[in-house]
Write a structure and sequence with these properties.
Number of helices: 3
Strand content: 15-25%
Strand order of the largest sheet: 1-2
Distance between the termini: 18 Å
Low-confidence stretches: none
Shape: elongated
Helix content: 40-55%
Largest sheet: 2 strands, antiparallel
């Protein structure tokens, strides 16, 4: 039986972290992990029911055969 190849895709997901105390986004990542995770989680839940927005906020940047 012939097996079909499978692929690994890498994506970025657009989301925003409101009310950060830092001007620099890297400082926000470094010092406000809970805010970043909270914003990411909220974004994921909002995308569950919005197919059009789901396609708009994801960007693929790499693919390889496994």
């Amino acid at each position: 039986m012939e097996t079909r190849p499978t692929y690994n895709h890498a994506y970025t997901l657009g989301f925003a972290v409101p009310e950060s105390e830092y001007e620099d986004w890297e400082d926000c990542l470094r010092h406000e992990k809970a805010k970043v995770i909270s914003a990411l989680t909220k974004r994921l839940w909002l995308l569950m029911d919005n197919d059009q927005e789901f396609m708009e906020v994801l960007d693929g940047f790499d693919t390889f055969e496994e």
